[in-house]
Structures are given as structure tokens and as C-alpha cells.
Amino acid sequence: MTDSGADESLMVRALALARRAKRRGEPPFGALVVDPDGHVVSEATDEVEGGGDFTLHAELGAVRLACRARGRDLSGHCLYTTVEPCPMCFTAAWLARIGRIVFGCSMAAMKKATNGAQRELLLEAERLNALSGEPVILEAGVLGARCLALFGGGRDDEAGDGE
Q1: Is 26 noted as a catalytic residue in this protein?
Q2: Any idea what DSSP says for residue 84?
């Protein structure tokens, strides 16, 4: 699925997840895995605070749940995430053979918006992709300003988000 309208619609869903996480006191990250027919297979938010585990990232949760539902090979599936995946999350998606990753704001922009309070290893997905030997399709900046706003980096316009 490469339709920009569909990408925005699915990112709106990821944004709603991120807002829910933020209301629960978690970092505002939302992610979902979508199958080749455009159906949402899984969705997740960060759970690092409640779970007391720094590996409980939204992207990892969404990939884990999708693998449980569909098996370890997620070829043709797409990962939607509000922030560029960190190296750990990118690697999980890559290992699961997710073919496309769509994200909102960059890790660098998010880190700047939080004055470094949100720790991330700034190794960009584009660089990881180039090193992978089997690159995935990366789509950056889908509703990026709205995703960044969750971290204090601008106006978070919830209009039309279904909340």
C-alpha cells in the first residue's frame, strides 16, 4: 500500500495510540502493522514506564503481536510509527521482513523537541537501511508535524483523529 491518503489515515490511527500512551504517562509513541490488503494486524504503544522495561517500544510491540498473528515472515506488511524507528525497532521490523516502514517525525527532531529528555541512539533508519543489504521502503514525514507536536514540538491538531 503506497497511497498517501491511506498512509495519512493509518498515521492518524498511530497518533491516536500515541496520545493514549501519553495520557497513561508513557512516552507518546504509537505503531501498527498493516497487511498487504490494508488491514491492521496489530497495534501498540510504548509501555516502558508501566512495564519497567526500556525494550517495550511501540514498534517492537506491534511487530511482536503481528508475528504472533501471522508468523515470523511479515513480507508485504507495513509498519506505521509516529517516530522514526530506533535501531532496535528498525532491526526487529527488518528481521520480520516488513517491506515498508512509514513514520512521522525523525528521531533527531523528537530529541531536539524534548531537549534530549527522550533518549535515543541517533542512528537513522536510512543509515541502517543502507547497511542492511536488504533495504526496506522508508517513507518519512507522514503527518510529521503532528507527530512531533506530541513532544512539545508544535501544535497537535487532533481534528479528524477519531478521538
Answers
A1: no
A2: P
